[in-house]
Amino acid sequence: MQRRIIWKTCNFTRFHCRLDQKACFESERTLTLVGDADDPLYADVPRPPRKMSERKPYPTPMKVLIQRAKDEKEARKAQPCRMLEEPPDKGLLVPELVEVARGCLFYLCLLVLIPSVCLRVHMISFVDVHILILACNLKVAFNLRFCSEVHIGHAGHEIRTCTGPNSGFRSASHVWKKGGVQDVVSFPKCFHLYDRVGKPRVGHDERYRIPRIPAILELCIQAGLEIDEYPTKRRMRPVYCIEGRIVDFEMVNKMDEMDRNSYPGIVDTLVDPDVGTNMEELRNSASLSHTDCVDKSSDKVGKSLTELSSTTMGSWFEMISGAKNIMEKYSVKTCGYCLEVQVGPKGHKVRMCKAPKHQSRNGLYAWQEATIEDLVGLNYVWHVRDVNCPALDNNLKRYYGKAPAVVELCVQAGAPVPDEYRSMMRLVVASPERDEVDLVA
Q1: CA 82, 87, 91, 94: dihedral to nearest 10 degrees?
Q2: Shortest CA distance to 341 belongs to which of 319, 368, 307, 302?
């Protein structure tokens, strides 16, 4: 009897200690989150990639989405036939975002052209100390099991985070191969919509007839950029909403045949006539920009490399900020389980989703609100402080920081570290040596 009482007392003590530790951890976690919210420049290292069976988190809470849907339903009941007031839902453009779309596409062309030039100049000038882009070789095109790990440096890191096929037999170690600019910057594609309001969905039978273009290019086109290769319909009058369905009373055939110059007052208030351009004009202007950047410092190749990297990073931030501003008005959808993206008020109906739980959806995509990371693949990589140091050790991974691949490439090429990613790259953290791992608490 005495032994039983002592055993119960010991168990109660252990349980009490566990509760105290759990409460202590929760309090520390709460304090940390409050501190993060107060500091706008603080950004922690991104979490490891989620499991494919888990759904992406919703950018807007579910309670807010449900309340928004209820309000829209009540508004339809109160007024079954109403003219939409807010652009671009009513079919008209947002005038202040037209120039933003043009600048976003210009910086996109500049961003795609400059990294290749930066790498070529750097690898020709510095044969011994050059920047290498390494990508994990375990990528299967028609299988969801692949590894998207990318590393920028001399040798691939030794951090065991591989999720490719048969990674368990290698203790999750990566198999590196030489990569390229396409591994640093990735832009997912989506279907081009001719009429984003009248016909916002693409059917399953139309998947081969409608072209697919980069989603950020489609976002700029819908925001008002005119490209001859991808025509789109521009309305002069707003549309109506009748019991939740969009109805266009504009005479489509007559308006298509008539010239836009017959409506000078409306066109001037909606679209700047000088905004229309084509891809060749943007490519030529972007190529002239990076050519001038190289010619300014042709005497010193190191100086030209630094200027190229700084220009690339500036183009990156300008493109990201422009895309965020456009996404506040023009909706972008993404699948909750895979990387599919569609720019428009609704997602398409193509039944080609191969993510988990696609059987219950008959191959349809689970559409939800997209973020900038879904529109532009940031592809976070481990930050290398010194290129001449040995490869990153798996036992010291908690001391290493991360950054988007474009930022890491520019920083290694000589660009200054941006303030937005200074805390994420953990520049103030002193990492121990390999033989000092056991001595660090």
Answers
A1: 160
A2: 368
Nearest by Cα to 271 from 301, 235, 297? 235
Show the tokens assigned to 42.
Answer: 């603080």
* Residues 6 or more apart whose Cβ sits within 8 Å of residue 298: 304
Q: What is the pLDDT of residue 285?
A: 54
CA 74 remoteness from chain centre: 35
Which pLDDT does position 5 carry in this prediction?
39
CA dihedral of residues 219, 221, 224, 225 (deg, nearest 10): 130
Q: Who contacts 6 (Cβ-Cβ below 8 Å, separation ≥6)?
A: none
Q: Which residues of the chain have pLDDT under 50?
A: 1-37, 121-129, 140-144, 252-255, 258-278, 288, 290-291, 293-301
State pLDDT tens for residues 217-254. 999 999 999 888 899 988 888 888 887 788 777 654 44
3-state secondary structure labels for all residues of the chain = CHHHHHHHHHHHHHHHHHHHHHHHHHHHHHHHHHHHHHCCCCCCCCCCCCCCCCCCCCCCCHHHHHHHHHHHHHHHHHCCEEECCCCCCCCCCCHHHHHHHHHHHHHHHHHHHHHHHHHHHHHHHCCCCCCCEEEECCCCCCCCCCCCCEEECCCCCCCCCCCCCCHHHHCCCCCEEECCHHHHCECCEEECCCCCCCCCCCCHHHCCCCCEEEHHHHHHHHCCCCCCCCCCCCCCCCCEEECCEEECCCCHHHHHHCCHHHCHHHHHHHCCCCCCCCHHHHHHHHHHHHHHHHHHCCCCHHHHHHHHHHHHHHHHHHHHHHHHHHHCCCCEEEECCCCCEEECCCCCCCCCCCCCCCCCCCCCCCEEECCHHHHCECCEEECCCCCCCCCCCHHHHHHCCEEEHHHHHHHHCCCCCCHHHCCCCCCCCCCCCHHHCCCCC
pLDDT digits (tens, 9 = 90+) for 79-97: 888 888 788 988 889 999 9
CA 195/CA 210 separation, integer angstroms: 12
pLDDT at 436: 74
Reply yes or no: is the peptide bond before residue 356 cis, omega within 30 of 0: no
Residue-level length of the chain: 441
pLDDT at 220: 93
